[in-house]
Write a structure and sequence with these properties.
The protein is of the alpha+beta class and 210 residues long. Helix content is 33%, strand content 20%. The chain has two domains: 42-57 and 129-204, PH-domain like (Roll), CATH 2.30.29; 62-123. Strand 5 (156-161) and strand 6 (166-170) form a beta hairpin. Helix 2 runs antiparallel to helix 4. The termini are far apart.
Amino acid sequence: MPTLPPDPAKPSTEGLATTPLSDDGERISVTDVHGTVARFEMAYSPTETDLFRFGPPMRQRVASLFFLLFAGAMVAAVLYGESASSAPALSTWLADQDRGRPIGSLSLSLIVLVCAVGTVARAQMRGLVVRADGVEARYLLALGMPRIRRWTWAQVERIVVDESSVMFELWNGEYERMPAVARHAELCELLERIASGRKIRVTRLPRAGA
């Protein structure tokens, strides 16, 4: 019996790879065969111009903010008191207190205000800076002296994160805890995306009590 020629309207399937079947006879999803496909969108490699700053949490800034508020109120009270027409009693009290002082009330209050602004600026120096080539951690020592430490991504073997902190396991087996930041969830998401692009292991610890 002669064979019929192939129908030109029907596309040929010769040479095409078939999708493998699982043990139960169902076709395996492409994301199961190529597991990296499902994680491709998570990978992220920052460019040289990308810079991500994460400042300290509010609990590390609240004391300096209260000091700034107190200093501002002090300056406002002195300025208000020096206007004799609006507050004669306060003006007289300030004048009596300033007698024999090397520094007047206004000068003293302005010095306190400058110190408060410096305290707020110093508190903002804590945090973490994520760059294209690595991470920069900023700390404050006991006497308020700043300390900056840097690590490149090549030094990071694993990133360990939990609900409140981030820790790096370095290539030499040492562990370095990163400073606390205000936007912790956003920092963890960024680090996980960078780690996915650079083949760095990530361990997310379970919530305490879970």
